[in-house]
Amino acid sequence: MTGPRSKTCAACGRIIAASEVYYRFTLVLQGEQDVLGTPGSGSADELSSLLKQLEESPESPQELEEQVHWERAGVVCSACRSLVVRTLSSPPEPTRPH
After folding, report:
1. Which of 22, 35, 74, 86 has the most CB atoms within 10 Å of its CB?
2. Which of 70, 69, 79 is nearest to 21 (CA)?
3. How far is CA 33 from CA 22, 51, 68, 77, in A?
4. pLDDT score of 39
5. What is the rounded CA–CA span in Å between residue 67 and residue 58?
6. Cα 25 to Cα 43: distance, rounded to the nearest angstrom
């Protein structure tokens, strides 16, 4: 009988031995918008125009969907855990580009 298999860190790609500590993560990014448009919007013409834009978009339906909902799960090693926690916990610097 074989024991637990090693895992691969999703951040750095390092192999994590079965005897090492690792951290599971699930990350979900969901697009939201508080204000959808100006009052009175949503007419049939506007909806037709939006549909046409989506149909003519160079992006695939999957790419468009991932702009609204994207999720990943995996494991990270101890070193990458520290980096991820620092990155997601600290407020962004005002001069950081998007």
Report:
1. 22
2. 79
3. 35, 19, 10, 34
4. 56
5. 14
6. 42
Please write the tens of the pLDDT for every residue from 55-77.
Answer: 888 888 888 888 889 999 999 99
- For residues 75 and 16, the answer to whether their CB atoms sit within 8 Å is yes
- Give the CA-trace dihedral at 55, 58, 62, 64, to 10 degrees: -70
- Cβ atoms of 26 and 75 within 8 Å: the answer is no
List CB contacts of 27: < 8 A, sequence separation 6 or more.
71, 72, 73
Q: Beta partners for 29? A: 70
User: Whole-prediction pTM value?
Assistant: 0.63
Mean pLDDT is highest, among 15-19, 29-33, 63-67, 86-90, for: 15-19
Quote the DSSP letter at residue 56.
Answer: H
